[in-house]
Design goal:
335 residues; alpha+beta; Fructose-1,6-Bisphosphatase, Chain A, domain 1; D-Maltodextrin-Binding Protein, domain 2; eight-stranded mixed sheet; five-stranded mixed sheet; 8 helices; globular; binds 2,5-anhydro-1,6-di-O-phosphono-D-glucitol; binds manganese (II) ion
């Protein structure tokens, strides 16, 4: 009998390449993986476990919380607070930084997460996921506050997402490419199934919420108009469109077969700066996409270069196949 490479084995072997690795990072990823397995289990049981529907509460962003948002957030906190790997955590579902209970040792990492991405898909059996980002805790800091989290995405030590779809798939980068692992529930482990994922540089598939079209800025209007014009337009070929309602799903597809995903700047979200959150949605996704050979921009700046100003800051997001993202950025430059 052969067991494939588990995510734990993969991380340990990757860490062996670094002389200074202490095993802390491997343990951190293990704890994240356990949280994702617990969430995957709740997601797959749905109504049978009584986890669908609204929680009856609102988060800091003024969004309605689903039961699964709350449950997934709890799973991440409980799995990661005890082990001495993180110094503090921050989440879409919590107003402020989560400082660890006094009984637990402080670790060297800061963990940020969107515990459940695509909340509006929970009750319709649509794709959902979890996104996470790992930063280093500044030296000497034992009770981190928001300012310690406000590091550009280029500083991320690791980023990943678990996608709860027909299969549960974990995609992970530690800065050496992107690898995908499928949860094998016969052994309870994520097994390497998608080594060295690469986003094709060219593609003819886009993902955008077209109901916002009237709010878009001219560069995005132009790009989408040209895609829609197909073989009759300046691009001279037909494009396809997909929109899953959960960035994790759209980004996973882009990692598999290319394309672009846009939640661009628009008049509707201008006051807030955009729709998606920089620290635990845009940055980890940008790292995954860049590590797989794609590009990630706001339209005007590389996402990973942004200096964050707030834990829950929102930004425009344009990620995917390099040549398409570069084209959209050029349209922004041209005005
Ligand atoms: P979340 O469920 O964490 O709030 O994020 C939802 C995000 C993202 O996943 C998705 O692409 C987008 O919101 C969906 O936006 P629309 O409601 O405009 O479709
Ligand atoms: Mn989200
Ligand atoms: Mn969420």
């Amino acid at each position: 009998m052969q067991v494939g490479t588990t995510v734990t084995q993969f991380i340990i072997e990757e860490q062996r390449r670094h002389a200074h690795a202490t095993g802390d990072f491997t343990s951190l990823i293990n704890d994240i993986v356990i949280a994702c397995k617990a969430i995957a289990n709740a997601v797959s049981r749905g109504s049978l476990a009584g986890v669908l529907g609204h929680a009856g509460t609102e988060n800091v962003q003024g969004e309605d919380q689903k039961k699964l948002d709350v449950l997934a957030n709890e799973a991440f906190l409980r799995c990661n607070e005890w082990g001495g790997r993180v110094a503090a955590m921050a989440s879409e579902e919590m107003d402020d930084v989560y400082n660890l209970p006094a009984v637990y040792p402080r670790g060297r990492y800061l963990l940020l997460f969107d515990p459940l991405d695509g909340s509006s898909n929970t009750d319709v059996n649509g794709i959902i996921g979890t996104i996470f980002s790992v930063l280093r805790c500044p030296d000497g800091v034992t009770e981190p506050s928001a300012e310690h989290f406000l590091q550009p995405g280029s500083q991320q030590v690791a980023a990943g997402m678990a996608v709860y779809g027909p299969q549960t798939i974990l995609v992970l980068t530690t800065g050496y490419g992107v690898n995908g692992f499928t949860l094998d529930d016969t052994i309870g482990e994520f097994v390497l199934t998608h080594p060295e994922m690469r986003v094709p540089e060219d593609s003819a598939e886009f993902a955008i919420n077209a109901s916002n079209q009237r709010h878009w800025e001219p560069p995005v209007q132009r790009y989408i108009d040209e895609c829609l014009a197909g073989t009759d337009g300046p691009r001279g070929r037909d494009f396809n469109m997909r929109w899953m309602g959960a960035m994790v799903g759209d980004v996973y597809r882009v990692l598999c077969r290319g394309g672009v995903f846009l939640y661009p700047a628009d008049a509707k979200t201008a006051k807030k700066g955009g729709k998606l959150r920089l620290m635990y949605e845009a940055n980890p996704v940008a790292m995954l996409i860049e590590q797989a050979g794609g590009a990630a921009s706001t339209g005007r700046e590389r996402l990973l270069d942004l200096q964050p100003v707030g834990l829950h800051q929102r930004v425009p997001v344009i990620v995917g196949s390099k040549h398409e993202v570069e084209r959209i950025v050029a349209y922004h430059r041209e005005g």
